[in-house]
Amino acid sequence: MYFNYDNDQKVYVIPVLPEKIKVSAKGQTTSIDIEKFGEVLCKGKRDAITISFSSFFPAAWGASYCACLQKDFRSPADWHNWMISLENAANPCHFVLEGSPFAINMYADITSYSGEEEGGDVGTITYTVELKEHRVPVVEKYKVKNKKGKTKKKKTSSGKRGNNKSKIKCYVTKSNDCLYTIAKMMYGNGAEYTKILNKNKSELDKEAKKHGYANSKNGNLIFAGTQIIIP
Fold it and tell me: Rounded to the nearest 10 degrees, what angle do helices 179-187 and 193-210 cross at?
């Protein structure tokens, strides 16, 4: 089971599978009463698929209860923050469930997430999450073709399922900038500066060489006018 993001560039494997998972898809029907005939049901398209389950993020990896490999294990705090970030994200997450009769593989929005830490098991977080299928509607536009009133139908979107690929963000450095202040401005946390450094180290080193330095000294040398990518 996965909660992925950014076109699967960010992969999170659920550590402990839930004991049960609920999948529901409510149909849309309208009841019409026709005189001298009776009730008629008009069936429309179904609602978005809803998925809900509960499980826990263990404080430590264990082969007997973890569904993920040890190298893919993440701390409960990382998972808790990841779920909240997905809930607040502008794009849907990519939810995948393998090895089950449901075989779910869809883009979804997290509509509800709650985590709880109990005193008897310090560090472990139990949680409940609900997701809804993310669907892109087909919008149709009608134009008058001629004076006789004939119309031509034109689709303006494909109706394919959405994606969650993040748009690339760029930033042009200014005088007195440093990676810490840029990270604080972009992420709200200066400690995230290493993400910017790892993504732009070669560009920063290249710019430093233009100014007579061997390298950027791990991002400590920043020159105004350098365009960097914010991952």
Answer: 140
For residue 36, the one-letter residue type is: K
The token duo for 206 is 């290249």
Ordered by where they begin, the domains of the chain are 2-133 (2.40.30), 169-230 (no CATH)
Which is higher by pLDDT, 136 or 163?
136
Identify the burial level of 82 via C-beta atoms within 10 angstroms of its C-beta, where 0-12 means exposed, 13-18 middle and 19 or more buried. Answer: middle
CA-CA-CA-CA torsion for 169, 173, 177, 180, nearest 10 degrees?
20
Res. 81 pLDDT band, cuts 50 70 90: very high
pTM comes to 0.57
- Rounded distance between C-alpha atoms, residue 167 and residue 230, angstroms: 10
What does the buried/exposed string (b/e) look like for 187-198 if buried means 16 or more CB atoms within 10 Å of the residue's CB?
eeeeebbeebbe
Long-range CB pairs of 101-108 (<8 Å, 24+ gap) are 102/21, 102/23, 104/23, 104/51, 106/49, 106/133, 106/134, 106/161, 107/133, 107/134, 107/161, 107/162, 107/163, 107/164, 108/51, 108/132, 108/133, 108/134
